[in-house]
From TrEMBL:
Topology of this chain in the membrane: Single-pass membrane protein
Similarity section: Belongs to the cytochrome P450 family.
Known cofactor(s): heme
The UniProt record lists the keyword Transmembrane: yes
Protein name: Cytochrome P450 83A1
Organism for this UniProt entry: Cardamine amara subsp. amara
Length: 500
């Protein structure tokens, strides 16, 4: 109750403060959108559950480019392939920046990372280095054995559950898989899954992720930092940041220790420490830069592949004929080649499965609104003004369900569509953008796909699944949990049965 009173009083204070401010901005012809209230704009109309569906609903009403306001900030949402191309290709350089966000600023050591960094010369250097080294095909291949080993461990656990016909929490298992893979790739650390160090890592990761996704008053209403402080947001942010920093500093200290045991494969932090020692960039690359970039890899790498696999298995439970076809294909392939486990090289040879991976990323792109872009200078899209400082999102979810692009049944889960049309997720087919496109496109695409494919293929190879407690497929909850990567809101629990 006390929180509500504080909130109401605070909002009223902000409301009256701004009501008596004279508007100073020049008149722009903004894209159409819902009319809002003075001061708060459209804040009161937004829904936090299933934001991609909510904005798709607005797009039906206002069109493929729409605008709305939160406080002083103009927000734009794009929902067609044609305008996505205009934004991410033709005008990419005007939108290659990220908008202000207090939590992201702190967590990324003042935007020294890649994902939240402003579009600066430093950003261009770190991005180039990332593409040539951290995320290069050679480096991704170096960790192949790690991903396959962890996938085998996951299958063993499911196997044990199948022996006693017990349901497994696939959401939990997949997060454990990605956490373990990412810790080994990023830090060269192999934690015991149920041990204290892994629990500590997960707690820190959740804290960091929650700060990255939080909305701070001061990002939308100038002079309201006191409200962030008052509502405890600042204290929570600092607590999460400090926990993260202590952890990352310990990892850095270990790499600096001359007696350190060399890991099986050079980890990503080792590579970043080499950059720290060699200082190849025009601006100084400090230990904080190392921590910021490694934080990016960990945050972006754990959630995304896990969320995608859970969505894929959820849709397969709802579309048993697709499940059957995919299982038959992988099982035939394994039988013909005398295999009991499918490796990263094997999945390249299974066409329906590859189409299934694409269909999974089409039907539920796990970052459905992509990461927001910040408009660098006044420009124009589709005849509307986009003022500098506007935040722009592409609703990749709406684009990948657009009838104009995908035919009459875009809501159907049908991998065949990718066998019939030559469309890929590499950022040049604008109707299909699960990894974004342009200068800020996901650099971890290859790694993300590799992390998704092996567990996915082996689940299909080794097990049949049913829903627990007589639940029907149509009863599966399809809501998303808001966050940077949108997980299925309810964990997916399935009862495995081992294939003889
Ligand atoms: C299935 C897995 C993944 C999906 C669907 C995905 C999707 C995305 C999307 C949509 C963006 C925003 C692109 C834009 O703004 O246009 C992004 C950015 C990014 N992703 Fe991924 N991602 C995945 C895996 C990964 C992995 C494994 C890593 C690293 C280990 C990673 C690192 C990043 C980084 C650093 C950025 C920010 C790039 C920049 O701003 O320059 N991602 N990702």
């Amino acid at each position: 109750m006390e929180d509500i009173i504080i909130g109401v009083v605070a909002l009223a204070a902000v409301f009256f403060f701004f009501l008596y401010q004279k508007p100073k901005t020049k008149r722009y012809k903004l894209p159409p959108g819902p009319s809002g209230l003075p001061v708060i704009g459209n804040l009161h109309q937004l829904e936090s559950v299933n934001p991609q569906r909510f904005f798709a609903g607005w797009a039906k009403k206002y069109g493929p480019i729409l605008s709305y306001k939160i406080g002083k900030r103009t927000m734009v949402v794009i929902s067609s392939a044609e305008l996505a191309k205009e934004l991410l290709k033709t005008q990419d350089v005007n939108f290659a920046d990220r908008p202000p966000h207090r939590g992201q600023e702190v967590i990324s050591y003042g935007r020294r990372d890649m994902g939240m960094c402003h579009f600066t010369p430093y950003y261009r250097e770190i991005r180039k280095m990332g593409m040539n080294h951290i995320f290069s095909p050679t480096r991704v291949a170096t960790f192949k054995h790690v991903r396959e080993e962890e996938a085998r461990r996951m299958m063993d656990k499911i196997n044990k559950a199948s022996e006693i016909s017990e349901a497994v929490d696939l959401s939990e298992l997949m997060l454990t898989f990605t956490n373990s893979v990412v810790c080994r790739q990023a830090f060269g650390k192999k934690y015991n899954e149920d041990g204290e160090e892994m629990k500590r890592f997960i707690k820190i990761l959740y804290g960091t992720q929650s700060v990255l996704g939080k909305i701070f008053f001061s990002d939308f209403f100038p002079f309201t930092r006191f409200l962030d402080d008052w509502t405890g947001q600042t204290a929570y942010m600092m607590e999460c940041f400090e926990r993260q920093d202590i952890y990352l500093q310990e990892i850095v200290d270990e790499t600096l220790n001359p007696n350190k045991v060399q890991p099986e494969t050079e980890s990503m932090i080792d590579l970043l420490m080499e950059i720290y020692r060699n200082q190849p960039f025009t601006s100084e690359f400090t230990i904080d830069n190392v921590k910021a970039v490694v934080m990016d890899i960990v945050v972006a790498g754990t959630d995304t592949a896990a969320a995608a696999l859970v969505w894929g298995m959820t849709y397969l439970m709802r579309y048993p004929q697709v499940m059957k076809k995919a299982q038959e294909e992988v099982r035939d392939y394994a039988r013909e080649n005398g295999l009991t486990f499918l490796s990263e090289d094997d999945v390249k040879n299974i066409p329906y499965f590859r189409a299934l991976v694409k269909e999974t990323l089409r039907i539920e792109p796990v970052i459905p609104l992509l990461l927001p872009r910040n408009c660098i200078k006044d420009t124009n899209i589709a005849g509307y003004d986009i003022p500098a400082g506007t935040t722009v999102n592409v609703n990749a979810w709406a684009v990948s369900r657009d009838k104009k692009e995908w035919g009459p049944y875009p809501d159907e889960f049908r991998p065949e569509r990718f066998l019939e049309m030559n469309i890929d997720f590499k950022g040049t087919d604008y109707e299909f953008l699960p990894f974004g496109s342009g200068r800020r496109m996901c650099p971890g695409m290859r790694l993300g796909v590799a992390m998704l494919e092996v567990p996915y293929a082996n689940l299909l190879l080794k097990f049949n699944f049913r829903l627990p407690d007589g639940m029907k497929p149509e009863e599966l909850n399809m809501d998303v949990m808001p966050g940077l990567a949108m997980h299925k809101a309810q964990h997916l629990e399935l009862v495995p049965e081992k294939v003889k």
